Amino acid sequence: MRDSTATDLHAVKPTLQDGSLRPVLISALRIFEEHGLPVIPCNGSKQPILKDWTNANPRNDGDVKMLFASGAAELVGVRTGAVSGIFAVDVDPEGGNWFAENIARLECKRIHTTRRECGRHLLYKIPPGWRVKNSVGKLAPGVDTRGEGGQLIWWPEHGGRVVEDDVPGLPPQWLLDELVRFWIAERVDTERVNGHTHSTRQEEGSGNRNNTLTKMAGSMRRLGFCTAAISDALHQENTQRFEPPLPGREVDAIIAQADKWERGSTSAPTPCAAIDWDKLVGDPPPRTWWIKDWLGPSPTLTSGAGGTGKTRLWQAVGTALATGQRYLEASVSPLRVLMWLSEDTEDEVWRTQAPINAHFGLTMEDLKDRLHIVPRQGQDNALLDLTHGKPTFTPLLNELRQQINDRKIDVLVLDNLGQFFGGNENDRHQATFFVNGIAGLVRDRPFAPVLLGHVARSPGSEFSGSAAWENAVRMRWYVGPTLPDQKLDDGEPVDSNVIYLARRKANYAAKDWRRLRFCNGLLIPDEPEGLRLDQAARNDTAERILLDAMPRLLAAGIQPTDGRTSNDYLPAQTVAKGYAPRHSKKDLAAAMHRLMGNGRLRREVVGKYANRSPRYGLVLS
């Protein structure tokens, strides 16, 4: 209540340049004068702007002016609980059914509408000897309470209406019973034991307080509550439940983490049913391939060192899939492709797309509604983050899910894992949790999520992190300047315009590889479409190259030899003369030894050196 030192409303010094009072200050003074309630300044998001607002208890108009001196004040809040003697039942639109069912017996003398459609604040007087706590959704979904340590916005000063305009009265007995049943109200906050007063608040260590509040935040997030509601509930629960309460900054840290979690649904998940064998009649359906033996509707991992061309490659693959073009292998009828590129701008995507269109004979109009590319450079791209060590999907996953299902996407490309995966890449559970969650974004039709990642720094690495990354996907592509099992000899050059694409894991096909050359801004596959290049075929090709190279080298005046230190070493001369654009010296050396082993090549004396010692070389059998 006001004291005798309260100043007249119009005696307060104006805060605006034109000599008038700020509207929010006028509202605060009006509430304080007419109702004697402890007002506090709040921002446009309904949050108090004072760090110690729970201690704010203005005694006169001057105190109110001091509280509202900040220009950040936009709304007038009123503290609830013992300090004001009132509590509120906050009915959101989701609680409309509860309000309609109970309106005849609510017996509420003071009701305000809020700025939310169908939202209402029901104000009641706290019964003597009772304490009412804050709660979220305990009475019913969308029905909260604001009590001890809480606050509410006085909406009649900000566009709301006063439906019932009387002094708040006591709640009806049935409502009080409901508050008790849900542990929202209790008769007293202390009890006398052997003449001493003991608090009924729990005395818990920091770990228990953190765990309790984190679980509470997680439950609220899964039920779809926004960050502001979680913040209100956690701070209120902390001050009312724990002795001593957790420091405010630690509660804020839990709330900040909750802001990254996926907002869930109030509906229960559909249980997974066992296979009904009676329904499986005849032959099983054929396996679906969108690029024969290379891409089907299952998770795929593409890894390679930075700068090897993974993004450029997949933009070309995505274009081919979206338009039904041939690339790597024959494609299928056009699909819908979505690419989230975390390290590219719109201009960079444009520069990459132009030569792709030229190669396929496409226009930008041909890509419309088929190929969707979202440049996300500079954005917060974490789809999964850790909460006290537990992997948790962030709200960004909802945005991705909506894009995928609204556009009926068949193939999703996420570039790259370093941006989208915020967990520990060496943790098997976190890796499989992420892959499974991304694959589960679509459940009612075939869907292929493609994850682009980097390799580790260790020599020979084909991907980074736990082996679970490879185990969780059904296909793994490797992109590099050489084949992953190819070791170059010292000094052997690497063609900077060539990359190799290797199918290193394929649950439903054999391993394979392709060689691509960078030409006019595009990676163009060298290999004829449909040619199988498994290890046996690769060996046969290398042997044929050497047999064809022998007479050509002899005609050029070069006598091939199997001596590695010789200038006429057959594998080295074959590569140097350009007869083997797709094979390394190591591949050709192995082929040479196989040919010598099966007698198709043999070493013979082919002449003499100046000192008359025999000179050996290779000849065809």
What does this structure look like?
- By secondary structure, this protein is of the alpha+beta class.
- It folds into four domains: 9-189, no CATH class; 190-267; 300-525, P-loop containing nucleotide triphosphate hydrolases (Rossmann fold, 3-Layer(aba) Sandwich), CATH 3.40.50; 535-620, no CATH class.
- Helices cover 30% and strands 21% of the residues.
- The chain contains 17 helices and 26 strands.
- The strands form seven sheets. The protein has a nine-stranded mixed β-sheet with strand order 16-15-19-20-14-21-22-23-24. Strands 7-8-3-5-4-10 form a six-stranded antiparallel β-sheet, with helices on both faces.
- Helix 15 crosses helix 16 (570-576).
- The longest helix has 21 residues, at 535-555.
Give the topology.
Elements: H1 23-35, E1 39-42, H2 61-67, E2 75-79, E3 86-91, H3 96-102, E4 110-113, E5 120-125, E6 131-132, E7 135-140, E8 143-146, E9 151-153, E10 162-165, H4 173-181, E11 185-186, E12 190-193, E13 196-199, H5 206-222, H6 227-241, H7 248-258, E14 300-304, H8 310-323, E15 337-341, H9 346-360, H10 364-367, E16 371-375, E17 384-387, E18 390-393, H11 396-406, E19 411-415, H12 417-420, H13 428-439, E20 448-453, H14 468-472, E21 475-480, E22 498-506, E23 512-519, E24 522-525, H15 535-555, H16 570-576, H17 585-597, E25 601-608, E26 614-620
Parallel strand pairs: 14-20, 14-21, 15-16, 15-19, 19-20
Antiparallel strand pairs: 1-2, 2-9, 3-5, 3-8, 4-5, 4-10, 6-11, 7-8, 12-13, 17-18, 21-22, 22-23, 23-24, 25-26
